[in-house]
Amino acid sequence: xxxxxxxxxxxxxxxxxxxxxxxxxxxxxxxxxxxxxxxxxxxxxxxxxxxxxxxxxxxxxxxxxxxxxxxxxxxxxxxxxxxxxxxxxxxxxxxxxxxxxxxxxxxxxxxxxxxxxxxxxxxxxxxxxxxxxxxxxxxxxxxxxxxxxxxxxxxxxxxxxxxxxxxxxxxxxxxxxxxxxxxxxxxxxxxxxxxxxxxxxxxxxxxxxxxxxxxxxxxxxxxxxxxxxxxxxxxxxxxxxxxxxxx
Length: 247
What we know:
The chain is of the alpha+beta class. The chain has 2 domains: 2-113, Box (Proliferating Cell Nuclear Antigen); 131-241, Proliferating Cell Nuclear Antigen, CATH 3.70.10.10. It is built from 4 helices and 18 strands.
């Protein structure tokens, strides 16, 4: 049994939106430390790891560790109806997840059927990265949009003090160079050059929920899965994306 409360329901809505951009179902683990989830997308190209500490909640009561499987699309639809000034109370209720939205003078309660999640992920990829990049989230979203005009894929290259993105398609080519200046590129640290090509649609889905003004961390190793992470409040989103390899 558990009962947890967030004073701002939109906080949970935003977190679920960030997870649901890649996966359609997931298993949330609830312990005294908070809530975690690890899940692969249906194509097994990408993975998301989510953690939200118990301190984020104004009430966090659990009798024992719990795991609940939910359809994230259905949960996202319910949370999209969040209104201003509403708190959110979640608890288990006879095999269902109860979501109660509490406003200044109203209450709404949904019950979402829990599901058996077929595929659970225990570990994150074990990669020793050669390069770490910290970039402002809003400019990175623009970089990906620029590349999407040319191709469905984007190449990242990190070297000492420079981060390069490029795209190649039937209609033309694009290359963008970004030096460490503290405005767009906050950090580029490479023990050796790292470069790989990634699917743009997956990257755009990963970054779209990053709050405006936040930074995004990218860790790379040539032709290995990319690690991309950012925070939503106290919560951390970590994504992994396999590189595109031409046949």
